[in-house]
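Predict the 3D structure for this chain.
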Amino acid sequence: MKDVVLFISKLLGLIYALVIGSLIAYVVASIINTQFVLGAYDVPISLADRFNMTMFDISNMWLYLVVIAIAFMIGFSIAAMIKRFIPKLALVAYPIAGAAAIGVTLGLMYIFFQTIPISGARSVAGYLGQIFAGAIGGFIFGKILYSRAKSEPKMNK
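Done. Predicted structure below.
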């Protein structure tokens, strides 16, 4: 029974880390997206308008959050498997996986839609900004897992 409780605790910890990592990556990605879109025009935009447009994008691009969470589930699963065989990769596995997950996802969007629906990612700098947001989400995911692993008891084998 104790092992079942520990398993559920670990599973809930993974879900928590995934949700928080995805949310942070989404917010950073949305902010970067908005700024690249606004920067594409040669018009002065006040700080207040930038803030309002950024908040609008954060509250309305929720489908991108779902895409990020799914991409992270796949990427972090692969990273977890790889870091078992290459222990030295453990510190950077999740940031790399988060960055790769976003990069691959945007690439697949381009293949399927012949455009990237995240308009701020259509330039190289915007694309790299989205990848950076994925790396931040992966870093947060890894930090949460690491801190939970240090405080949780080990399961019996």
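Residues 2-151 form one domain.
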